[in-house]
Structure formats: structure tokens, C-alpha cells
Amino acid sequence: MVTKTNSLSQIALQKFKKNFWGVFSLCFIGVVGLISVFAYLFAPDNSQNANQMHVSIHSKSPGFTVDMLTIPSQIKNEQSFLDKIFFGVKNTDTEIPIATFSVNDNQLTYTEYASDGLEGVSKTIAADFIMKNSARQYIKSVTFYLGTDKYGRDLLSRLLVGARISFFIGFVAVFISLVIGVFMGSVAGYYGGKVDAFIMWIINVTWSIPTLLLVIAITLALGKGFWQVFIAVGLTMWVEVARVVRGQLISAKEMQYVTAARALGFKDYRIITKHILPNIMAPVIVICAANFAAAILIESGLSFLGIGAQPPMASWGAMIKDHYNYIILGKPYLAVLPGLCIMFLVMAFMLIGNALRDALDVKH
């Protein structure tokens, strides 16, 4: 008779599958990750950073529709297919929201769109590229499903493209914090003594500095920009990982399997990486889920302060900064929508952290 035995990882996986909110959050994060990678395939405005501005249609309500005249540019746009997918289209054409148009004698006469009941300017251009039968090829009806921001950009596209920064900063920051934290915590916990005292001094000094202040200092030292923020956030999040790894390693190094490894003559590096770390990673995984959420919030705060991702790059925090005054001006959704995106993504990571904590708890 064959008895079926389950490993601890299989048991943890089964317990995780039974947690509805954990599985739901994992699926939600997977969808956000897919949108982040292929944002320009989903975004109605697939120009780089979804930054196609039309000031005449700024702050329009969701569902707003307008005719858009596209005047082709003479500049040749040479972009690879992959470049367009991952970084957006370099749009050199001129787009003009219009109210009315007519084509006579190979000339296009149009009236620019004007809001608040005003009458737009009428213009006539010699349009060799437009004929009566093909006018609609260059004039299309465009619908802004979530409306436009204060610069006349498509809000839905900005939200989709902005997900990329908030999502990937979690991965980069957690990776940096894992590399530094696991190394520092392992060395401190395994060797102890003066090495432990020195590393703990570094940890305590770093821990005592307010996180946001430290990130601001690192960001100002490295300069404003996309990758600088990623590195700055990662360099401030390794402390908690290091403390947990150190504490786990101090207790694990006294276990019999470590004593046996030493008796067999294994080197310290192999004992730490092959024997101890795989057995103490459960609490580290839970901390990483929480650090994902913390990294998203820190980046949003930096963008709100103006030292995060720089314009015209789309960022949820920057979108809140640009539109928070609209909360009292009658269009709160311009600031509320990116705020809800941040809240849902952070909540998803926190729920996954709780689910992992329950699944990896050997006492239950």
C-alpha cells in the first residue's frame, strides 16, 4: 500500500488556495502586471507616456466624445514593433479637436472645438492628403471613457500607463532590499560578535532615519528620475529584511543539521545559502509582500511631492498631485481614480501577505 505524503510547500500551497482573498488578490495583481507590461496595447492613447495633449478639451467628464482631425507629419517615424508595444508610439502627427469641417476644392475648412459655449476658431488649410471621399480617414470620433485631465490627456490611458511605475517599483525595490537585507542579516546572524555589532549599528542608524526623508535625500543625491526613485526606495527597505534574517539565522545556526554540515567540512557560504536560508525564507516572503505595498506608497508620496517620476511620465502619485484641487472644484474623480488604483493595489499585496503568513504558519 502506497501512502501519499505531502511536503511542507505542498501543504502551504493547499492552505493558500483555500484563502479566497489571497487567491483573488493574486489574480488581481496578475492582471495589473499584465496591464503594466502591455499598457500601450490596452491604452486608447498609445503615444509615449499617453501624453497627447488637447488643451481645448481639458477636464471633460467620462464618456466625452469629440471629432479629432489628424494632420499627418512629414517626419518619418522609424520604430520597431517591440518598441511601440513596450514604450509607446512616437506620435509626430498633429491632432486637433474640431466641432465642424468641410472639404471644398481640395481645401479643408474646420472649426476648432471650444468648450463653455464658446465658438472655436475657423481655419482653412490646403490639404493635398485629403479628398472628399477620404476626409473621414483623417477625422475620427474619439471617446474618452474616463474623461480627460487638466491638460486634455486621456485619463484612462494615463491610468493604464501609470500602473507600470507603481507595479514595477515594487519588484525593483523588493529585489534590492532582498539582496542587501539577506546578505547583511546572514553575515550578522551567522558570525555574531563584532561583525554583528557593526551591522546592527548600521541597521539601527538607518532605521532611525525617517523613511521618506531618507528616500528624498537619496533621490536628490542620485537625481530626479525613473530609476533613481526605484534605487532610492530599495535602499531604504532592506533594514527590516536584514533584522528578520538575522534573528532567524541566530536560532537556525544552532540546529543539528547546521552542526552536521560543519562536521562534514562544508564552507560557511554553502551552509548559509544551501542549508539555512531555504529553511528561514517563510517570514522573509511575508515581509516582501508588505514591502511591495510600502514601496508603492512611498513612490506615490514622492511623485506627489514632485521628486518621483518626472513629467511627462505617467504616475498615479503625480496624477493626484496635478488634480487634488479638483476635489473641491466639482470633478473629484480626477484625483480619486488614481487614489483608488493605489489603494486597491496596496490592499492586494497586503492581503497576499496575510494569506502567505497563514499558509506558512506551521502551527496551524
From TrEMBL:
TM ranges: 20-43, 165-191, 198-220, 226-245, 276-298, 333-356
Keywords: Cell membrane, Membrane, Transmembrane, Transmembrane helix, Transport
InterPro entries tied to this protein: BP-dependent_transpt_permease, MetI-like, MetI-like_sf, OppC_N
GO cellular component terms, A-Z: plasma membrane
UniProt topology in membrane: Multi-pass membrane protein
One GO-annotated biological process of the protein: transmembrane transport
Subcellular location field: Cell membrane
Superkingdom to which the source organism belongs: Bacteria
A Pfam family reported for this protein in Swiss-Prot or TrEMBL: OppC_N
Residue ranges constituting the ABC transmembrane type-1 domain according to the UniProt record: 163-353
Chief place of localization: membrane
Gene3D superfamilies reported for this sequence: MetI-like
Family (UniProt): Belongs to the binding-protein-dependent transport system permease family.
Name of the featured protein: Peptide/nickel transport system permease protein
Lineage: Bacteria, Pseudomonadati, Bacteroidota, Flavobacteriia, Flavobacteriales
